[in-house]
Amino acid sequence: MKWLARNAFPIGLAAAGFTLAVGYPTGDPDTYWHLASGQWMLDHRAILRTDIFSSTVSGQPYSVGEWLGEIVLTLVFNAGSWAGLAIFRALLVGIAAFFLARLSRRGGAPLVAALLVVVWALVFSKTRWTDRPAIFTFVLFPVVLDLLYQARAGSRRALVAIPPLILLWANLHGGYAVGMALVLAFAFEALVRRRPDAAPLVLTLAASIALSFVDPETFGVAGAAAHALAPPRFISEEAPPDVLEPSGFIFAAFVLGTLGVALLYGGGLLDALLFVPLLWLGLSAQRHLAFFVFASTPFLAAGAARIYRALRPHPAALRPLPPAAAATLAVLLVAGALASAVGAPRDPDEHAYPVGAIAALKTGSGTLLNEYDWGGFLIYRVPERKVFVDGRLFPYFPAVLTEYRDAVELRPDWKDVLAKYDVREALLMPAKPLAVALREDGWKVRAEGSNFVLLTKP
Amino acid sequence: MRTPLVVPIAIGAFFGAISTRLPVGDSDVFWHLVLGRDALQGNIALPEAMSDLSWTALRFPGSSDQWFGQTLLALAFDAGSWRGIVALRALAIALLVGLIVYAAVRERPTRPLGAVLAALPAVALSRFVWTERPELFGVICFALLVVLLRPVRAGDVRAMYWIPPLILVWANLHGSFALGAVLVMLLAIDGAIAHPRLRSIYAAMAIGSLIATLLTPAHLDAWTAPGFHLLHPPRQIQEWSVPDVTTLPGSIFALAVFATLTTALFASARAVRDAVVLLPVLFVSLIATRQMPLYAIAAAPYLAAHGGDAATEIATLLRIRMPALARTVRQPGRAADGVMLAIGAVVLAVAGATGIDVPDLSGYPVAAVPLLRPGPGLLNQYDWGGYLIWAAPKTPVFVDGRLIPFLGSVMDDYTTVVGVHPGWRDVIARRGIKQILVRPTDPVAVRARDLGWPIRASSDTFVLIDVP
């Protein structure tokens, strides 16, 4: 009861996050190949270490750093189909919202100020509510950050939880490198400040590093660093943030807000250690925006509270709810959120995929050249056909991706690429230059829709 | 305390002199020169003038918000051909760098080295606007506004009188005046709160500046181009792309942002009023690559004023010794400023006289020019439009760097043909395109070769195709 009453605000926000997230159908192209990989691993009781889905890099090794994430998602899917995935995603969003709400009050911000900031952080985070292993990073980042703040406030128990979480994270998704960076920042600050928690934090860091190696892809951090330094820009989530788009605008608001609060009230070493690298990461690619937004939430909320107090030195005091009422409210909100799970979508949103080509693809043969964004969908929906490229990216980087782009964008060697792989069919968006050229060259249309055309060599 | 000008003049002259060794031949300079000459003849972006340049944007009223900048370029060219352009650019760069350094040194006149360090990101980033375009003049106006910020904030009425004339000149030089006008509004609000007795002067400054933005040949339309570019930046053009911190300019920009944030976190003095300028300029800079230098320029005085304090605080925390920065024992007087100004002028004059005197045309389809058919019918690469306006005046272009006249159907048709999108041949027929001048790697060039269309000329840079 006490815990419920004390955490009524985070619980309320978690319930809101759950309710918002549960209504979205799956639509991410990568979900499909993650599910296919997970299913293969469950069927074969082995980790999938080489490519089995493509015609271009078949048999070549590829990243296995998300093996556990894929298995978890597949188990959820096998248990509850697409609705199960939506509910699971909503649960994770709810957990993230819970810890984000706790973080928002770490700087001593009153409820109103915290709510003002955290709601925007939550709205912003919608772009990361995907059914991919990346969602585990989305959840574990605020969890680990909150644990570290707890430890900084004197809780040793919070520190004990971190190394096992890093172990889990390292096997769920490659984003665990950011988690270790958080531990490093807190440990460094404690060492510099000669705080009493320096030694435990250093021990936690050492244990986290050691446990992160208990992962089939031992040196994943190096891969993550290389990825961050040279992101493949043609993938939309790897592009730098555009502040004129909704998510980029909210990110910019957090950046400006953080700088504004720093100019007004200053900050500390830990703030600098967190904000500078995470801001660089956020500016480097859209997929990393959430880290800075989440990390700056407590700072901003505290700043908002100070500005409010400066503007209204004697505000009317808000009387907190009695504990019993707060606990009841929390329970009611959770119950309401869980009830919203009834509305979880039963099917994925496939309007962006070439659904109308499936039947023709199943009866076709020969090497298929497909759109990059449709590779995952094809792996799952048309397992009979090998894909040319898909969202796994790394196996195709750089040679096959370059050839793929040369072909679909009609670069001078496009015919050589088609000849090299003996491409017999092409599944493309109708506006692609290659689709136009192949039609002009007499390739036959086997299937066609508003967003796709399946062409076969005459 | 008077701010000595020795250091700003020396550094400005140094970079101005260096710039005379940099290539000249920006893709937009050519059409700016043509419009500048028109302006000198009294035709400021008249429909008739525009119709000579392009065959797709006939009767477009034109954007006349840069007429003064274009006129300066044309005057420089008429005076000394390309050497004149290089000299004007060098002078402008010297002025820009000098203003950036001056704004920083003024904050720390006794520790000029620290101030110069604080100005370095801005100077380095300004390199990416060292172009022979009116944009450079706009950035100078911005740097001048930054210089005027401190006295205006402090309630210096004389400085306030300078603001509306600055905005007037800026509005006629380049579209970036809109940012200056908005900043002046914010400054006026900030000043009126801080100095209630000067409220009417601040109001007059703001209103005067707003009126000044309308005193251009375009009147209210002068706000059209900056407003459009701010909210709908043409991302397909490199300089309007989103800032990328994994590139060199992006990393310098990130450095300026991180330095400001770190300084704000650690400096003991609070800088509430700096937020009035830094925050909106940061947002504008985050919009597009070409606007990144603005933030670095705006942040330089703040970094100079508080960076040392923050660095000392960090060094204390880390228990490391900060190297002591040289402190000037005696401030140089006006005579020293005069001597440095004379030396700087000589350096710039010598550098200008011995610098680049021909444009770098290696990226342009020079060999294709004699083969272009006169009259309408050419579809050209967007980046080459300006050059063709200059080099082949009898062949009007399909598109060029002026962009706004072509937004909508012209750019759509251009993209359709060059990218070989569905209906590309219909567009060729409908528009009456007779020749195509593009890069060899453009899809339309590849497709034209596939289809066996006659190639009039080609090189590593271009391919000129006759449409059968």
Folded structure, characterized:
The complex is a heterodimer of chains A (458) and B (468). By secondary structure, chain A is mainly α. Chain A has 2 domains: 2-343, no CATH class; 355-456, no CATH class. Helix content of chain A is 61%, strand content 4%. Chain A is built from 19 helices and 4 strands. Chain A has a 4-stranded mixed beta sheet, covered by helices on one side. Chain A is elongated and about 80 Å long. The mean pLDDT of chain A is 93. Chain B has 2 domains: 6-353, no CATH class; 366-466, no CATH class. Chain B is built from 18 helices and 4 strands. In chain B, 60% of the residues lie in helices and 3% in strands. In chain B, helix 6 packs antiparallel against helix 7 and helix 16 (409-418) packs across helix 17 (424-431).
Q: Gist?
A:
The complex is a heterodimer of chains A (458) and B (468). By secondary structure, chain A is mostly helical. Chain A is built from 19 helices and four strands.
The major pleated sheet of chain B works out as: 4 strands, mixed
Distance between the termini of chain A: 72 Å
What is the total domain count of chain A?
A: 2
Would you tell me the structural class of the helices and strands of chain A?
Answer: mainly alpha
Q: Biggest interface and its residues per chain?
A: A-B, 48 and 46 residues
Q: Count helical runs of chain A.
A: 19
Shape of chain B: elongated
Radius of gyration of chain B: 24 Å
Give a topology summary.
The complex is a heterodimer of chains A (458) and B (468).
Chain A: H1 2-6, H2 8-22, H3 29-44, H4 67-104, H5 111-124, H6 134-152, H7 156-172, H8 176-192, H9 198-212, H10 220-229, H11 246-265, H12 269-284, H13 289-311, H14 323-339, H15 358-363, E1 367-370, H16 375-381, H17 399-408, H18 414-420, E2 423-428, H19 433-440, E3 444-448, E4 453-456
Parallel strand pairs in A: 1-2
Antiparallel strand pairs in A: 2-4, 3-4
Helix pairs in contact in A: 2-4, 2-14, 3-4, 3-16, 4-5, 4-6, 5-13, 6-7, 6-8, 6-13, 7-8, 7-9, 8-9, 8-12, 11-13, 12-13, 17-18
Chain B: H1 6-19, H2 29-40, H3 47-53, H4 67-107, H5 112-126, H6 134-153, H7 157-173, H8 177-194, H9 199-214, H10 224-231, H11 248-266, H12 275-287, H13 292-318, H14 334-354, E1 378-380, H15 385-391, H16 409-418, H17 424-431, E2 435-438, H18 443-450, E3 455-458, E4 463-466
Parallel strand pairs in B: 1-2
Antiparallel strand pairs in B: 2-4, 3-4
Helix pairs in contact in B: 1-4, 1-14, 2-4, 2-15, 4-5, 4-6, 4-13, 4-14, 5-11, 5-13, 6-7, 6-8, 6-13, 7-8, 7-9, 8-9, 8-12, 11-13, 12-13, 16-17
